[in-house]
Sequence to fold (653 residues):
Amino acid sequence: MLEKALTGSRRYWGWIFFLLAVIGVGFIFYLRQFAYGLGITGMSRDVSWGLYIGQFTFLVGVAASAVMLVIPYYLHDFKKFGKILILGEFLAVAAVVMCMLFIMADMGQPMRVMNLVLHPTPNSVMFWDAIVLNGYLLLNIIIGWTTLGADRKELPPPAWVKPLIYLSIPWAISIHTVTAFLYAGLPGRPFWLSAIMAARFLASAFAAGPALLIILALIVRKLTKFDPGKEPIQALGKIVTYAMIASTFFLILEVFTAFYSQIPGHMASFEYLYAGLDGFGKLVPLMWLSTILAVVAIILLVNPNTRKNESILAFACITVFISLWIDKGFGLIVGGFVPNPFERVTEYWPTMPETIITIGVWAIGLLVLTVLYKVAISVREAQIDSGSNTH
Amino acid sequence: MSISRRDFLKLAGISSLGIGFSATDLLWKNRAEAIEYMSSPKGLTAKRWAMVVDLRKFKTEEDYNRVIDICHRIHNVPDFGNLKDEVKWIWTDTFEHVFPFQKNEYLPEGVQEKKAVLFCNHCDNPPCVRVCPTKATFKRKDGIVAQDYHRCIGCRFCMAACPFGSRSFNWRDPRPFIKRLNPKFPTRTKGVVEKCNFCVERLAEGLKPACVEVSNGALTFGDLSDPNSEVRKILSTNYSIRKAELGTRPSVFYIIGGDEDA
Fold:
């Protein structure tokens, strides 16, 4: 099937070469980082994780959100997701690839990555994260590729793939739970030390992931002959609505616990993020932008009249995505480190090379996504051409 | 000594079986543990090394600088001259920042602003060891939390986990920033984490940590598990505090002061 990615319009190839160019630039900057060290980034002794780990955390959520299509389709027999299921699974593949690349980009000694395998350490959450992420990548590649291949031949997927599909459901939950455990189990970081962290991660993931999927589905409809359909998009819109409300609710729970208890350590990071602390407030405008976007998104999504209008839905999905990207891909990580254990504030802001490397990894993700979507959509277009649209 | 053909074969068979077993053993069971210093007969040993910091005995700026300088000099700790790249094993901060949970504006004058020396607490229940995905940081049998610079992959999970801010990362090559190289201690490379090691290299030679040696009695080092040790004697006769509320069981204790120095 992969050969379908090798034939395409000029626009397709233009996009591919554009992405390759961006990746090339990102790679050049990565080589600089490789030679100089992570000092090329904005990170420091006090804020020792930054944009890279933020992207990793956010994208694990995007990857996990494929389950929001798998559950309705396979467990509730919601047939309308049948045709776009593959878009969710391939999005998960691209997202996990990006997660792994961001981890590599963040490592001080990337050449020693195999030490994870040579010295397996089950008491480290990172050990489990490596296992669940690799497993999830494999599951989605196998499931996506097999079901699409069967679909192309107008056959039901082979029986052996069914158990893998069912396994992928708890597995998707596990990748984001384990990722939350990276943070939620650390004693000296009160901002992260919260039992609701994993639940909040999942809620924000099930909002941001399907929001991105809606945007992608609308782009696919515009650029190709394959129409993901109005109803699946509306169904996804409802999922985004519920999840976004849950995610915001969980955030409010965190704020309540911190501020009603009045425990200084639990309030400090929120103060830094939303109001500034000791005169430092680099992230304040961003965090309020995230808040405003979240409110706008919820208003537009809750109202059925605006949600059913596809242009407004698309706009709402963009606001959801940006709002949660800021909250989870940036504020959550930096906020955990500010103030430091000595109640002192060191600020963080990504540097130019760090930003370019980050964009480069996103470009790799988009390239993987483009190639996989090209294959999937070519199969769908062939079905439309032969008029055998049986779903 | 002669050996019959039959015995030779028997011996060879058993040996190869043995080699086979020990090879599997090496591969699957005893995957090499991270390096530790071999202790010589003259080395100092303990069940749990601990440090008592007596703040009453730090009087001048020089008292602080002396312990910091000796540590950073013998351990080849680089000085980048900026906060962003900073690597430090031992440093100072004021009481109110060292013990944020002990904030109390009614303390005797000068206590809040009093500086304390800070370094790795060599916790008995260390979160950094718990989170390390490669066992590059590990707790030795004598309680010291050590770091293997050659195994560390630079993920910095330990830095997020440490509630004492004890760990530094080499954001860039530290070697050009070492003022005077001590050839007896390894330098580090970029991309690895490091921290205070309670001078394991000196303990192995029968010497106490360097900071203790130059502290004029302000720092006391000893075995916390031995009721007759110097540290235990000091702790049993002076009121000491530590940041213990997080359950890491730190092995560094602070004596703040009493009437005589108020």
